[in-house]
Amino acid sequence: MKKHLEQYFLHIILVFLLSLGVFASFLFGQQAVAQNKTLYWGSTGSDVNKVQYKLRQWGYYNGPVDGVYGAKTSQAVRSFQLRNGLNPDGVVGNNTWERLGYQVRGTAWGAPRQQENRAQDANGERWSPETNARTRDTNRTYLLAKVIAGEARGEPYLGKVAVGAVMMNRVQSSAFPNTLAGVIYQPMAFESVSNGQYARPVDEESLKAARQVMNGWDPTNGALFFWNPSKRVSPWIWSRNITMRIGKHVFGI
Amino acid sequence: MRKWMAAILVGILAVAGVGYWGYQQYTARQRMETVLANNYNRAYYNTLDHVQNLEVLLAKSLVAADRQQDDKLFTEIWQQTTAALDNVTQLPVTDVVIGRTAKFLTQMGDFTRRLAENAASGQTLSSEQYASLQELYQQAGDLNNELQKVETQVTKGQINFREMAGRTRTEMAREGRQLANANFQTIDETMHRYPTLIYDGPFSDHLENREPKALGDREIDENTARARALEFVENNPGGNYIAQVTGNVEGNIPAYRVEIVPRQNGEAADRPVVMDISRQGGKVIWSIHPRELGEEKWTVERARSKAKEFLKQRGYENMVSSYYQKHDTVVTFNFVTQKDNVIVYPDMVKVSVALDNGEIVGTDARGYLMGHRQRDIPKPELSEQEARDLVGKGLEIKGKGRLALIPTETYEEKLCWEFQGEMQDNNFLIYINALTGNEERILQLFNTDNGQLTM
Predict the structure, then answer these.
(1) What does the pLDDT read at residue A134?
(2) Which of B131, B309, B335, B448 could covalently link to B319 via disulfide, CB atoms 3.0 to 4.6 Å apart?
């Protein structure tokens, strides 16, 4: 009888540990999608769903997200590739996966070595004799890059620059705080800051985009807002004057 | 029997453990929430204090007759607005709700800072300035009243900042009025009545709608825009480009967005070059070629002459490079125009060169397009030697001074003698007004591995 009970407990503990493991791998597994399959006409499965979903979001695809790689999907992939300077072969390989915003080589976030390099990069100040409105300083560049990474993950490079430009435009606008930190940490201003996602290590492209913004580039033509129309947004936001669209974001003054 | 007891005991222990853990979590959460609420309350009460001070100070400034008193009061108002803005933008309400209040505070600070400077240089208030002050006083009074109303609710506990912070941005904006921040919305509506304030400062309304000066007047269509883009993009030998208008850009320079795909053997060979072409005049506002970078092979000097040549071929004559920054394998040069030996800093074009193959990977001509025009640059009243004598004694001047047109915060331009000097291993640029002899600006130079001033 005693043995029975022990076994019983052992089972419970085992099941518990196992489910914990499954849960954990579920949590972290999503971040570590190291390899995506190459997809082509006739492919099926959840990877196809991912592609269809992204293409639909970005307006390349208007069919159903059904996980079947058919004619419509192929055509959408082709026009996406054409627009992004890829070989328009209708095959979703590494490059296309990457341009779709999925990480191909290992984990982009959670690589601590890269972060160290960047910390070393973060000394010294920049200066410009022409304008003191956008003073240079790599600490600020890094902060900006973090929020760009949080807000514009999976966006094309230009979309990242645009998101950063909105923050700098806010610094220079009278209706917002007049410092970069003030703008970034204003309550309810940026979703990824509110939910802490911006605290993850930044990727190389976001840092590059932040530098481009600090150097004065502004593809938004002075926009102060951006939003993702596919998410729930307040009707109020549509009363802004739209200046342009990039990727899944709309920009407005 | 005993075994059952053991099982029950284990069960009780487990429940107790979970309960203890839960209680710990609960108290920890309570503590964090209190910290948060206290922070919000501090920001709120500080805002209240600063706005009250503002009202009093503005009233005083209306009755003050002495210039020294003016100077003091305006400086103090400026400080109070900065503090008020800092606090009000920390409240957990959306920028939609607080935007106008923030603008009011920013402009008031900006305006009074300018008045303080005027007072310091001996000017008295003009009648318009006095009228603006009266309006600001009224408005500050209204803001104060509204904030007081909110205060009663905060003290009674009817408004809970902690709760407001828990709401998402979307909920806030959607449900707006029903939520506690309806009170703040009323405040912002009071600010609606606040008139347009035009004065000589960087946040003045007339500067937010600045018109570009160097576009030309012909409207172009999409085909011309594509042609202009193809003319502008660097034509690599054997390259074959296809340009496509992919969007419209509104804003202060309306433009076509054009993407240019380099092709080889009928296939896209690289990521597209993106640029904005102004609808009026067909000028390239900026361009970016986001691509992978290879090994560094070019020197900065070689890249500089390449960039200069690139600009010359595209109609930007008489450009000199003022300084550069280098990041990884991209170097960005700032080019400014030179006219009759005067450096014109407002006419700026930036050019980024990739150091792997010398390709131009970015340009930004916004500064030039906004500011460039035929200028009548005045003759300097001061000689270089006279200006040199006006530079502070602590500074050791290196080399010769040169004439430069520098922009003020309000995009006016001043002709200055520019000197570079050194004090205790720190490098500075000093600008002495070539007409009045005033010291217009002092800039400190930083030489880093990434960039340096090159003159």
Answers:
(1) 35
(2) B335
Q: Could you tell me if B337 and B239 lie in one domain?
A: no
Angle B2-63/B127-156 helices, nearest 10 degrees? 150
The answer to whether residue B450 neighbours chain A at the CB level (below 8 Å) is yes
Q: How many residues does chain B have?
A: 455
Tracing tokens 């005083």 back to the chain, one arrives at B60
The minimal CB distance from B100 to the residues A5, A128, A175 is found for A175
Q: Which residues pair with B259 in a beta bridge?
A: B244, B274
Domain ranges, residue B395:
384-454
Confidence of residue A126 (pLDDT cuts 50, 70, 90): very low
Same domain, B45 and B172: yes
CA–CA distance, A69 with A42 (Å, rounded to integer): 5
A162, A251 contact by CB (below 8 A): yes
Out of A124, A218, A237, the one facing B449 most closely (by C-beta) is A124
Question: Which residues sit opposite B79 in a β-bridge?
Answer: none
Question: With bands split at pLDDT 50, 70 and 90, how would you rate the model's confidence at B326?
Answer: confident
| Any B CB within 8 A of A87 CB | yes
CA-to-CA distance for B10 and A229, rounded, in angstroms?
53
Residue B432, amino acid: I
Name the residue type at position A161: V
Q: Are residues B45 and B149 in the same domain?
A: yes
Q: Is the ipTM of this complex over 0.90?
A: no
**H-type alpha helices, B314-403:** 366-371, 384-390
- Shared domain for B267 and B315, answered yes or no, is no
CA distances from B404 to B318, B338, B393, B455 (A): 14, 9, 22, 13
Residue B72: HSE in the Cβ half-sphere, 13 Å Cα cutoff? 7
- End-to-end CA, chain B: 94
Task: Name the A residues in 12-71 with CB < 8 Å from any B CB.
Answer: none
Tell if the pTM clears 0.95, that is, is over it.
no
Residue B32 Cα distances to A12, A241, B29, B272, B443, angstroms: 36, 39, 5, 49, 44
Whether residue B154 sits in one domain with residue B73 = yes
Output phi, psi for A105, to 5 deg.
Answer: -85, 105
Q: Provide the shortest C-alpha distance from residue A126 to chain B (in Å).
A: 7
Residue B407 has pLDDT above 60, yes or no: yes
